[in-house]
Amino acid sequence: MELVTDIVPLRNRLSKESSVAFVPTMGNLHEGHLSLVETAQQRADCTVVSIFVNQLQFSPTEDYGQYPRTLEKDCSLLKDMDVDVVFIPDKQTLYPEPQEFLLMLPPVAHILEGKFRPGFFRGVTTVVLKLLNIVQPQKVIFGKKDYQQFYIVDKMVKQLNLPIEIIACDTVRMHDGLAQSSRNCYLNKNQRFESVRLYQSLHQIKRSIEEGNKNFKMLQDDVIKKMIQHNWNIDYITIQQRNTLEPATVNDKELIVLGAAWLGDTRLIDNMEIHI
């Protein structure tokens, strides 16, 4: 495994490879990240993992300063997996000047996560586009837990005609269903026990729809009411069209239920695809 911190040495190293698969991360790696690495290793001769906590996607009130950074452990895990290259740039490397050139994002970037985290997708698309330009992979691996992020990056790559295939991998979950997330470490013991309710609530909606219930508003409202009774603060629980992320209608066959909610000071997100 090679550790690379700058752009020119990375490009020189990768110029020798016939195919590259790339996994961008913010570190604090868990089983979800490692499953993406496994997929990358199956899809190309060389696997690159980046570790960079991107300040541009955090608002001033969010947890950029507290975001868990576990670089030594992360590198140990990646070495055990025989990853070829780990790219660890600093802020000056990725943002040598104030970032004045930004993409104009489509309406889908201003709903759901975009509504509750203004500027988030501007920061995500900026850093992902930079990393794709630097690494120049043939394939990039994303997890579906951040479904809207995957959706927007996939659209960006297609509309900008980048010669890259975006590969989406299913959410990796804990034994009780909680989606693997770097922010799970913020939960105390009682919150960790309660945190599975988000997964259970989305699964309840999924099961009800698959059994024929198409009263989407009632399903959403019932789940939100119950979660509030257990001290959750809900940003959204919503059923959308999976292929457009527009609000679902009773005639749609490919749906997704997405949720984002606060448990104490920790914000958790999850989603489930629904086929009817």
Can you describe what's shown?
The chain has 276 residues and is an alpha/beta fold. The protein has 2 domains: 2-169, Rossmann fold (3-Layer(aba) Sandwich), CATH 3.40.50; 182-269, 2-Layer Sandwich (Pantoate--beta-alanine Ligase, Chain: A,domain 2). Helix content is 38%, strand content 21%. The chain has 9 helices and 9 strands. The strands form 2 sheets. Strands 1-4-3-2-5-6 form a 6-stranded parallel β-sheet, sandwiched between helices. Strands 7-8-9 form a 3-stranded antiparallel β-sheet, covered by helices on one side. A hairpin with a 2-residue loop joins strand 8 and strand 9. Helix 6 (120-135) packs across helix 7 (147-159) and helix 8 runs antiparallel to helix 9 (216-229). The longest helix has 22 residues, at 189-210. It is globular and about 55 Å long. The model has no long low-confidence stretch (mean pLDDT 97).
List its salient traits.
276 residues; alpha/beta; Pantoate--beta-alanine Ligase, Chain: A,domain 2; 2 domains; six-stranded parallel β-sheet; three-stranded antiparallel β-sheet; 9 helices; 9 strands
Task: Furnish the topology, listing elements before pairings.
Blueprint: E1 2-4, H1 7-14, E2 20-25, H2 31-43, E3 46-51, H3 71-80, E4 85-87, H4 91-94, H5 113-116, H6 120-135, E5 139-143, H7 147-159, E6 165-169, H8 189-210, H9 216-229, E7 232-241, E8 254-263, E9 266-275
Parallel strand pairs: 1-4, 2-3, 2-5, 3-4, 5-6
Antiparallel strand pairs: 7-8, 8-9
